Amino acid sequence: MNTVITYSRYGGPEVLSVSAADIPRPGPGQVRIRVRAVAVNPIDAKVRSGRLDGVFPAEFPVLPGWDVAGMVDAAGEGASADVGDAVFGVASVGGYSQYALLDRPVPKPAALPFETAAAVVTVGEAAFRGLKHLGLKAGQTLLVLGAGGSVGGIAVQLATARGITVIGTAAEGDLGRLAALGAAAVRYGDGWAQRVRAAAPAGVDAVFDTSGAGLLADAVALAGDAARVITIADANAAEHGVRFTGQDPADRAPEALPELAERLAGGGLTVPVWRAYPLTEAARAHADLEAGRNHGKIILLP
């Protein structure tokens, strides 16, 4: 049998329960992996709570989770990976599970830990995609709102590696870490836009909002054009003429994961993993996530 975490109603972390399910069989092009690590993302908790029912309506029972890494133990006809391969990617159904199916398995470099591979999937793709859409070149200046978070931190690293000057807003406690990643770190909160102007007197060429903190009006003013601002987190983007990216699966950038994996394995990118919990302690992991105790990614170990 397959040990999984499911929930049959919306609610707090307590609705998560340990269940048993059949081991899934891979279809054409799919692989089945024995999951070694699965990431807990903020969206997992938002869907579980019911706050995103209008966007991601649930069909109970729900098997949550997307970002997984593990070993292929079965492969469907035409699959791009073989039994025994170490891979990672987006689970086809749900990742809080001992076994999961992948439609697009990405080879995991030997030097990349399973925990880090799972941690980078959603946040790394989002960071890569935001920069791809903005299309900045070396020498230009990017403002990252929420640069202290996982997506923002990866965006900072990818942008600086491309020769882009980065200014990032973050909480007081994250400013030192952000500066170490190569960004000009600016404290968020009242007066943040003025502090950005002081840090970039020549202005910014684009803004990447990863915070969803209602900052788009000032972001547009700083960039000078709504077309130079993108968000992955503010549902009111259209009111400001700003592009919201990520809701449409066709808008994703699956080509990001191989590049991110190589950067992580080679030391050119870091994704902090704060804590790993046994799969059966998923409720505790969600509680810590929602309480804001984590300073990095949370991982479940089946």
Can you give a write-up of this model?
With 302 residues, the protein is an alpha/beta fold. 27% of the residues lie in helices and 25% in strands. The chain contains eight helices and 15 strands. Strands 3, 4, 5, 6, 7, 14 and 15 form a seven-stranded mixed beta sheet that branches. Strands 10-9-8-11-12-13 form a six-stranded parallel beta sheet, sandwiched between helices. A two-stranded antiparallel ribbon has the order 1-2. α6 (216-223) links the parallel β11 and β12. α2 packs across α3 (150-161) and α2 packs across α7. The chain is globular.
Could you give a quick summary of the protein structure above?
The chain is 27% helix and 25% strand. The chain has 302 residues and is of the alpha/beta class.
Series of secondary-structure elements, N-terminal to C-terminal: EEEHEEEEHEHEHEHEHEEHEHE
Low-confidence stretches: none
Q: How many helical elements? A: 8
Helix percentage range = 25-40%
Strand content: 15-25%
Gyration radius, in Å: 19 Å
List the helices and strands and how they pair.
Elements lengths: L1 E5 L10 E5 L9 E10 L1 H8 L17 E9 L10 E5 L8 E4 L3 E2 L6 H21 L6 E5 L4 H12 L3 E6 L4 H6 L3 E4 L4 H8 L6 E4 L6 H8 L5 E3 L11 E2 L11 H11 L6 E6 L3 H9 L6 E5 L1
Helix pairs in contact: 2-3, 2-7
